[in-house]
Amino acid sequence: MDTEKLRDLSKPMDVALLDATVDSFYTTGSKEERAAADNILRDLKANPDTWLQVSHILQNTRSTHTKYFALQVLEGVIKYRWKALPVGQRDGMKNYISEVIVQLSSNEASFRSERLYVNKLNVILVQILKHEWPANWRSFIPDLVNAAKTSETICENCMTILKLLSEEIFDFSRGEMIERKINELKGSLDREFQLIHELCLYVISASQRPELIRATLSALHAYLSWIPPLYIFESPLLEKLLNFFPVPAYRNLTLQCLSKVAALKFGEHYRNQYVQMYMVFMKHLEGLLPSNVNIPEAYPAGSDEEQASLIRANILYFTAFIQNLALFFTSFFKSHINILESTPETIPFLLSGLENLISISYVDDTEVFKMVYLPPTVDSIKPEITTPKILYSDQISKLRGLMITRMAKPEEVLIVEDENGNIVRETMKDSDVLVQYRIMRETLIYLTYFDHDDTERQMLSKLSKQINREEWTWNNLNTLCWAIGSISGCMDVDHEEIFLSRVIRALLSFCEIIKGNDNKAVIASNIMYVVGQFSRSLMGDWEYLMIVVQKLFDFMHETHPGVQDMACDTFLKIVQTCKRMLLVPQVGEEEPFVSKLLTSLTTIIGDLEPHQIHTFYESVACIIQAESDPQKMGEYIERLMALPNQTWAEITGQARQNADILKDPDVVHNVLHILQTNTRVATSLGTHFLSQISLIFLDMLNIYKMYSELVSNNIANGGPYASIVKLLRSVMREILKLIKTFLGKDENQPHIGIHFVPPVMDAVLADYARNVPDARESEVLSLFVIIINQYKVAMQDNVPRIFESVFHCTLEMITKNFEDYPEHRLKFFLLLRAIATSCFPALLQFSSEQLKLVMDSVIWAFRHTEKNIAETGLKLLLVLLKKFKRSDFSNQFHRTYFMQIEQEIIAVMTDTFHKPQFEFHVLVLLRLFTLVESDSLTEPLWDASTVPHQYPNNAAFVCEYTIKLLSSAFPNISVPEDNKDLYAEEAAAAKLERERQRMLLVLGPYCSE
After folding, report:
1. Judging by DSSP bridges, how do beta strands 423-425 and 415-417 pair with one another?
2. Cys staple from 134: which of 52, 172, 188, 711, with CB 3.0 to 4.6 Å?
3. Chain centroid to CA 922: how far?
4. Cβ-count burial of 96 within 10 angstroms (0-12 exposed, 13-18 middle, 19+ buried)?
């Protein structure tokens, strides 16, 4: 098969050969034939002349795949090169596509058999319309409407085109067209909608063809959200839609259209029409959905294929109807519930609709529930208003029950039921569930403010049914306790304490009598979650607080997966609220609780895993941090850290005798565990950690240097993934993290940590520069971001040393490609940004070569395809532009880099890889153009020896440079002579001003201003 002949586009293409090539790629070819076909097809797509063969291909091919290939070629031309084509070619193509569509859709058989092909042609036509209409194709809408009247199948396809056109303009246009073009298309569609409206009314009034009516309803659905309201309310359209609602074949589409109408807001306008619409709708609904129908039970019986149980009068009831019904009610109530509340005649229908909506909310379908779990009736009513409380009391009570029954899982709960019905520790958070929980929590809080007595009564009733086993299941208890925890803070403290006491005592008793480890684990997790949420209620009852804390200590010895984790996490939440109580000796106590806790520390943590011990140490340190007596605090810290410090002293003592002991994996694990414990304690203590870090600081740096050398040597010898190397690197990272944590907490007393910086620089910087690339830790860059941001000007003299140690070697690592060392990339640019923000004068001391290296790296950053890196580079650039503008070096900097920055920004702004950063691109250009417009620069940006003529100012030079830059980058853009079109408004204003001045000269004093 001589496929190379396809590359010759100087004569009509061999369509049979193209068919064979396309078929070999999609279906029949071997691996080698597919690869060869792929190359040919890619080259044809890339060839700018291939599109000229499209009509020839479509007329002669017998392959569906080939048709789509040809349309893909054409679509690319329309999207990127349409305006560059001669007018004759554009007119020829749009006429050809229109003719093919009419030809295929005028015949019922071809329209049905080629429906996918016709749909693709419709999309192509709409893409052309986005360029040609209305300026170059003003008769399109009248032509389309006239064509629709000639045949019902043509009319059906015209409805599809109208729907696509509306969607392209109103839904998918952002990011594809400029705002002015979008507004122009919207205005044209708005002006010509009367013809569309008349056509749609004619179809739904006169046609008996179900496919055409469905296509018309679908098109109307796309238009109803934006058309002028008179087309809805001052025409028969709304009446026709309501009449279609009871018809099974059109019910869902009609309901979607009515939902669009229901969501519209016009203030007091059309108030009566909305009332009438709702009343008629509810009367129709009563016939379709009797009040005795249990929607949650009936819902699973239905399907989108209308295979459902028969419900009254043999009307099919299916899931899509319920989903659309939920959408209608939520849309209507959100926008117009106030008009239904205003008259006695409408209130029964309003309450009936709310009952239906709440009943739908109980459907066991997450997607349906998401539509309605924040009912706008609750959101739109203020808790202090009495009338709505009375009006909606029953509905709101049912809604409380719904939220309690269906509450989503909060983030703090770590124990879940897996797909096999086993209770296990959660390994991954579901972000959708967390979002759902936050919204449901807000809703239940709002409902509780209405009537906390009813909320409490329902919760305690359901809890009683759990304990006496009437409704006992893991899921029922979980959702109940998650709901209980979600309303913390909704009651006054005294009431909340009584409520919490009843709940916890009931759960503790239940946990004692229940059999089975899984059952106990579920109850334990719920106890800990509720206690953690209501920790403020423990502050007023010391005895009760001790009962809860002791139970948490018991749970810390429970080995069921997840229980110990939740116990440690809950203890941390409690001490963050009650730490003052735990520091003060209580009545009848000889010493504070914290002292007794430190005495029994070894026993409490005896069964915990290392990561759980770290959390527990953080909790105890949180208590100690609240101690106001420095002597007592020092004593408590010493007692807390006694065990890890003893192990640390033993390890470092042995290492002084024999350094090889530090290479033993067990020793390395111990070192890592001690460091992680210190980091968590430092998190709570902040600057009070000074005494502890001073004990281990120098030994810690020595271990860092030793492990770094071991890692570097191992990697250099080809073993970067050995388990011991990973372990050693974990220790190095933890050392850096500990230093970062301590120095990062030094905000209020920066003098405390500053003397730790020189030894850190001596140990870490030299090591980073010396190491092989794979051994360099990205945390080093993060550490110096913290240090520079923390100590600012005090670090200014150290910037050259930091630059020398990390800049060149890191830049070599990250500029080879866009993939390697992703962590180093982001942190490197964050370091540059910290230097530019906090130590900018240091940059002014750089040599021109060093500054060029900085600017090249910034440009490289915002050209990166990774979103975080590109945005960081752009933010850094904005900081540099702001700083240099205010400096004495503004003229020199902008003369060197202004044009390069503009060129690079326009390059990334106009490619297809950096759309998310568009806002930052605009900000950079705004800053550049504002600078030259403001005449802040006192020297010219251009080189007088390289320009044909001098410019009056920098703004004129930048304007001409930008026009040339764009025209050279995009040759398909025609630049009008003297840029008349670009400055039409300015030219008109100038002309008027010149005429005014001329009249002043002619008429003199007789001319009035």
Report:
1. antiparallel
2. 188
3. 22
4. middle
d(CA 152, CA 600): 86
Please tell me the distance from the alpha carbon of residue 234 to that of residue 240, in angstroms, as a whole number: 12
As given in the structure block, the two tokens for residue 234 are: 């001052």
d(CA 653, CA 667): 13
Give Cα separations from 265 to 194, 332, 519 (angstroms). Answer: 21, 10, 51
Which tokens belong to 29? 């070819």
The DSSP bridge partners found for residue 125 are: none
With contact defined as beta carbons under 8 Å apart, do 513 and 558 qualify? no
Query: How many whole angstroms separate alpha carbon 1006 and alpha carbon 839?
Result: 64
Distance CA 262, CA 329 (A): 8
DSSP state of 824: H
- β-partners of residue 310 are 316
* Residue ranges in 717-847 assigned as alpha helix (H): 723-744, 750-753, 757-770, 779-791, 799-802, 808-814, 822-838, 840-844
Main-chain phi, psi angles of 183, to 5 degrees: -65, -35
Encode burial over 882-891: b for 16+ CB neighbours within 10 A, e otherwise. ebbbeeeebb
Q: Name the residue with higher pLDDT: 746 or 496.
A: 496
109: its two tokens: 């058989």
User: C-alpha dihedral over 680, 681, 687, 692, to 10 degrees?
Assistant: -120
pLDDT at 943: 85
User: For residues 426 and 414, is the Cβ–Cβ distance under 8 A?
Assistant: yes
3-state secondary structure of 311: strand
| Count, residues in the chain | 1009
Q: Report the C-alpha gap between 509 and 532 in whole angstroms.
A: 19
Q: Partners of 424 in the beta sheet?
A: 416
Question: Which residue type sits at 156?
Answer: E
What is the maximum alpha-carbon separation in the chain?
107
Residue 306 region by backbone torsions, left for phi larger than 0, else alpha for psi between -120 and 50, else beta = left
E strands in 217-314: 310-311
Amino acid (1-letter code) at residue 303: S
d(CA 424, CA 561): 6
Q: What digits encode the pLDDT tens for the residues 4-43?
A: 788 888 888 888 988 888 888 887 767 888 888 888 888 8
Give the phi and the psi of residue 832 in degrees, each rounded to 5. -60, -40
| Cβ atoms 619, 575 nearer than 8 A | yes
Kindly give, in sequence order, each residue whose CB lies less than 8 Å from that of residue 129, ignoring residues fewer than 6 positions away. 137, 140, 165
Average pLDDT over every residue of 385-406: 78
Separation between Cα atoms, residue 993 and residue 987, nearest integer Å: 10
On the question of a cis peptide bond just before residue 134, with omega within 30 degrees of 0, the verdict is yes
Q: What is the C-alpha to C-alpha distance for residues 326 and 299, in angstroms, rounded to an integer?
A: 13
Q: Please provide the average confidence, as pLDDT, over all residues in the chain.
A: 85
Question: What integer is the mean pLDDT of 662-670?
Answer: 93
Host H or E run for residue 708:
helix 690-716
Sign of CA dihedral 142, 147, 151, 155: negative
Collapsing DSSP to helix, strand or coil, 734 comes out as helix
Cα 584 to Cα 549, 623, 770, distances in angstroms: 16, 11, 52
> Is pLDDT at 781 greater than 70 in this prediction?
yes
- The CB-side HSE value for 345 (13 A sphere, CA atoms) comes to 6
- Kindly report the number of other CB atoms within 10 A of residue 183's CB atom: 12
* DSSP 8-state secondary structure symbol assigned to residue 177: B
654, with CB counted inside 10 A (0-12, 13-18, 19+), is middle
What is the mean pLDDT of the segment spanning 266-281? Answer: 90
**CA dist 924 → 235, 645, 920, 969 (Å):** 51, 53, 6, 20
Q: Rounded distance, CA 415 to CA 698, Å? A: 42
Cβ pair 43, 12 in contact under 8 A = no
Cα distance between residue 673 and residue 614, in whole Å = 8
